[in-house]
Amino acid sequence: MFNNNYNPYYNQPQRFQPTEPIQPINTQPYIPSQTNNTQQVLLGKSVDSIDVVKAMDIPLDGTISYFPLTDGSAIVTKRLQGDGTSKTTVYRPVIEDNDATTPIYVTVEDLDKKLKDLDFSNDIKSFKDELKSINKQIKKINVELSDKED
Hints:
- This protein has helices spanning 50-55, 98-101, 108-117, 121-149, and strands spanning 43-44, 65-68, 75-80, 86-91.
- By secondary structure, it is α+β, with helices and mostly antiparallel strands.
- Among the domains are: 41-96, no CATH class; 105-150.
- Strand 1 (43-44), helix 1 (50-55) and strand 2 form a beta-alpha-beta unit.
């Protein structure tokens, strides 16, 4: 009844042909804006032990998967290498010894005590004796040079 050409209530759709060709409004090509909305996602999940990581599936494209141990003792990474084998690496935190890095300060009393314990008298006496010896040698050289000039 709807497709009946004899139905007086049925109007056939009219087809319009444009009288002039349609031209684009903007003649420049559309270049989408390049924004870096890429969100980096770390692949992996928390595991209970390193043995669980060995059995985990990893992506075949060579991206690294991260598996932190639930007790916080290490982070294990696993990736597929070019030769088809998987490489597992364990990263453990370094516990620094704070005693070795803490400076030890000296008090004024300790410094005074150490300075009093030093004995400079022997050093000064030997230094004076050396200076006297050098002075005598210089005088002797001067006398010899003056004798040669005459």
